[in-house]
Design brief:
- By secondary structure, this protein is of the alpha/beta class.
- Helix content is 28%, strand content 18%.
- The strands form 6 sheets. It has an 8-stranded parallel barrel. A 5-stranded antiparallel beta sheet has the order 16-17-18-22-20.
- It is globular.
- Bound molecules: alpha-D-glucopyranose and calcium ion.
- Alpha-D-glucopyranose (GLC) binds next to loops.
């Protein structure tokens, strides 16, 4: 594999609205981010991904952009953004932005012009289609519920949206639209942006016949992803995009890709692939319900482990992916992937270790480094997220009681990851002096940055050591390029793997079980590199490795036995 500058980097996702508010309006802002660059540097972060900060009506929290060239007032100004670029650069850090180009906001000028002239030039920036005998053109359910087709007032046409109706899909078949997007992307890259996280990108290619599918829910509709899976040729759009933008600037790109077709992975992530990398969501997709969150299957430890192992083995044939525990669309990983008895600082460190030392680029989501957890939600009114509200109704329509539907939402809601960052034990966790736009997690007095900074044994200090180990001169090579191979897969409760280069072999072993286990090593122990329970003191002459419940050990292997 040819080396590339970003291969050995560690990234961090900021959800700006919930990161840090500096002017008391209850909304995080660019000043807040600026003031925490040193905090991120101390954590070992190289690349910062900002969820959308463009001008937006915030129907979907900024993933509905009304002006791609402007910063949302709520977050600050373009001058502050430029300052952020400069300050990051001073610290050898890189900024990437979200790129939302499958759709824009219905308040975007293009869409407003399209509505004003439904037969005009701008209507063709979108999908305006005739209905079928008084019905929408096809029977698709949007990702956020309801039909994908919305009537265009005063006409017999509908426009297409795969997400909310305020997020009309852009027509990538139109070369002028594509040129406008490329121009905008290049404008940001010329400003000094390092690259992008690319939103929902597989959706840009439609099956232009818009065929109906067998309904798969009581609403008589079929999931719109079925249309995406029936569309051919997304690769041509992605290559055109890359050649006209990213490639010219040697930009780093990480794409959000679901519904990839079999055999397509290489096209996306190999050296000359569409993107630098994509996220590995395989463990997250295990809890996709057939009809929604309410029938999301429980995920066993073994299933989770096998899925990650399978993904790692597959990916390393072609390139690298980006590894996450959580993001702004997912519940907190500690609450999701750890059994209740393991939702402790030790368990949190164990989960972090297993994830961060996998092969691929780690993306830490804000608050993960202090072990933030899902919040306790008491009523549907407490949520802001459009998708949570939809899923609540789906659950109710499927016959769940209010309490049951709330339990489902508590477990799966995207707002679990969007509660304000917990900085200290003061009012609103130090996030704002005003009223936070979304409630603060009630556990902020126990889990917060200030408290953990003072405690050497905290999750935060551990994450610093973990990231430092991954990037250390002696072990960087093995953690970046070392082959992944599973270990001890036949144990019931252990997730373990080797990372191996020509001259080094490292074992990461974690016991997710409630009882201690003993593993027989196939190698001498050279050094214990990291442990969450003080195993640095372990007798390295023994070939038995004892792991307590929730213990993780990272060790360098010596001579094989
Ligand atoms: C992506 C984003 C999500 C957003 C959706 C529509 O999945 O991560 O937050 O709602 O795209 O833009
Ligand atoms: Ca603010």
């Amino acid at each position: 594999m040819n080396k590339n500058w970003w291969h050995d980097k560690v990234a961090y996702q900021i959800y700006p609205k919930s990161f840090l508010d500096t002017n008391g309006d209850g909304i995080g802002d660019l000043r807040g981010i600026l003031s925490k660059l040193d905090y991120l540097k101390a954590l070992g972060i190289d690349i910062i991904w900002l969820s959308p900060i463009y001008k937006s009506p915030f129907v979907d929290q900024g993933y509905d952009i009304s002006d791609y060239y402007a910063i949302a007032e709520e977050f600050g100004t373009m001058e502050e953004f430029d300052e952020l670029l400069a300050e990051a650069k001073k610290r050898d850090m890189y900024i990437i932005m979200d790129l939302v180009i499958n759709h824009c906001s219905d308040k975007h000028e293009w869409f407003q012009k399209a509505l004003a002239e439904p037969d005009g030039e701008y209507a063709d920036y979108f999908y305006f289609r005739q209905g079928k005998s008084g019905n929408p053109p096809s029977n698709y359910r949007s990702y956020f519920g309801g039909s994908c087709w919305e009537p265009v007032a005063g006409t017999d046409k509908y426009y297409f949206h795969m997400f909310a109706k305020e997020q009309p899909d852009l027509n990538w078949e139109n070369p002028r639209l594509r040129q406008e997007l490329y121009q905008m992307i290049n404008w940001w890259l010329e400003k000094g942006l390092t690259g992008f996280r690319i939103d929902a990108i597989i959706n840009i290619k439609k099956n232009l016949d818009f065929p109906d599918f067998e309904p798969d829910g009581p609403d008589g509709l079929a999931g719109c992803w079925k249309m995406v899976e029936s569309a051919e040729g997304v690769g041509e759009f992605l290559e055109d995009l890359k050649q006209n933008t990213f490639q010219k600037h040697n930009a780093f790109t990480v794409a959000e890709v679901f519904n990839m077709k079999d055999g397509e992975l290489a096209d996306f992530i190999e050296e000359n692939g569409h993107f630098s990398t994509i996220f590995d969501f395989s463990a997250h997709c295990l809890s996709d319900g057939e009809h929604g969150w309410y029938d999301a299957p429980a995920v066993s430890f073994q299933k989770w482990r096998d899925t990650i192992i399978h993904a790692q083995l597959d990916i390393q044939k072609y390139g690298m992916e980006a590894n996450i525990i959580e993001n702004h669309d997912e519940p907190r990983g500690v609450s999701r992937f750890l059994p209740e008895y393991a939702r402790t600082p030790a368990g949190t460190k164990m989960l972090g270790t297993v994830n961060i030392l996998l092969r691929g680029i780690p993306f830490i989501y804000q608050g993960q480094e202090i072990g933030m957890q899902n919040a306790v939600w008491n009523s549907i009114e407490e949520y802001d997220d459009i998708s949570t509200k939809d899923q609540y109704h789906i659950a109710r329509d499927a016959g769940l009681s209010d309490a049951e539907a709330l339990t489902v939402c508590s477990r799966m809601s995207r707002d679990n990851a969007r509660t304000p960052m917990q900085w200290n034990s003061q009012k609103n966790a130090g996030f704002t002096t005003g009223t936070p736009w979304l409630k603060v997690n009630g556990n902020y007095k126990e889990i917060n940055v200030e408290r953990q900074e003072k405690d050497e044994a905290s999750v935060l200090h551990y994450y610093q050591r973990l990231v430092a180990l991954r990037k250390s001169p002696a072990y960087k090579e093995v953690f970046t390029y070392g082959t992944f191979s599973p270990a001890f897969e036949h144990t019931e409760t252990v997730m373990a793997y080797y990372r191996t280069t020509a001259d080094k072999k490292v074992l990461v072993a974690a016991n997710f079980g409630r009882e201690a286990v003993e593993l027989t090593l196939a190698h001498d122990i050279c050094h214990i590199l990291l442990s969450n329970m003080g195993a640095e003191e372990t007798d390295t002459s023994s070939h038995m490795l004892r792991l307590e419940s929730c213990e993780v050990i990272v060790l360098e292997c010596g001579q094989p036995l």
